[in-house]
């Protein structure tokens, strides 16, 4: 699953990207709204994590632009703006979820998984090419009569 983090706080963006990559996600990062819009419209992500207060184009506008173009990629807004009107604006603009900073990484990860589950309910996430099958959720690949290339992961660390 591919995720895009659009966050101008570089340290936070790097920490999130490393944590999500350790969970098996492919993660790209943009540090301003315009770059985020470009990546979101050209790269095909499974989920976007957007800050609101971004240089170039704010998160509300970025989200609204994507929704106006028919993009239905799940969007989680992650922001320091914790007022009820801010949250309502984010959701009304088209975000699927809204989480305020400071936040729990465990809760963020659970929300990411929940948004991805909702997205994949309608169709099978399993990809097939000839006799080869790839299940991104199960993180396995199978060829006729055998499972291919699943690496064991070490114990999970609590964050």
UniProtKB/TrEMBL annotation:
UniProt GO MF annotations: phosphorelay response regulator activity; transcription cis-regulatory region binding
Residues covered by the Response regulatory domain: 2-116
InterPro entries per record: CheY-like_superfamily, Sig_transdc_resp-reg_receiver, WalR-like
GO biological process terms held by the UniProt record: regulation of DNA-templated transcription
GO cellular component labels: cytosol; protein-DNA complex
Classification via Pfam families: Response_reg
UniProt keyword terms in alphabetical order: DNA-binding, Phosphoprotein, Transcription, Transcription regulation, Two-component regulatory system
CDD domains listed in its UniProt record: REC_OmpR_CusR-like
Positions of post-translational 4-aspartylphosphate modification: 51
PANTHER family xref list: REGULATOR OF RPOS (PTHR48111), TRANSCRIPTIONAL REGULATORY PROTEIN CUTR (PTHR48111:SF36)
The name this protein goes by in its record: Response regulator receiver domain-containing protein
